[in-house]
Amino acid sequence: MKKFCFIILVLSFIQLEAQSLVGKWKTIDDETGKEKSIVNIYKKGDKYYGDIVELINPSKPNPKCDVCRGEMKGKSVLGMTIINDMELEEDEYSSGTILNPSNGKVYKCQLKFEDNPNELRVRGYIAFFYKTQYWKRVN
Predict the structure, then answer these.
(1) Is residue 7 a part of any domain in this protein?
(2) What range(s) does the DUF2147 domain occupy (predicted)?
(3) What is the pTM of this model?
(4) pLDDT confidence band for 3 (50 / 70 / 90)
């Protein structure tokens, strides 16, 4: 019985590790279906953050977020932290925000694995309106 419980515990741990949010993710535009960037998601304390570490075919070299507000206005999109303060709550990451550098807006955010641990559903909310993208894990 102890062996069986240990095996279940190990398999559960492997399942959690396989669905780790930490790592690099390729963003896919929900309107065009084109790859846009690589975001590195990392854990700091009990929260998760994501920085743009690569731009895929940018329209101009080293684009700035001219439409952003506050301290983000005019900052380079490359290196920008776009995911902030996400927390694991049951089977999804929420309670944080995501910035869209294309329009400068900050949305409430929900990150969730569906059936595939290499595909992340990224949903940004304003009130009850939302947009969804599916990001692919980069190995």
Answers:
(1) no
(2) 23-137
(3) 0.85
(4) low
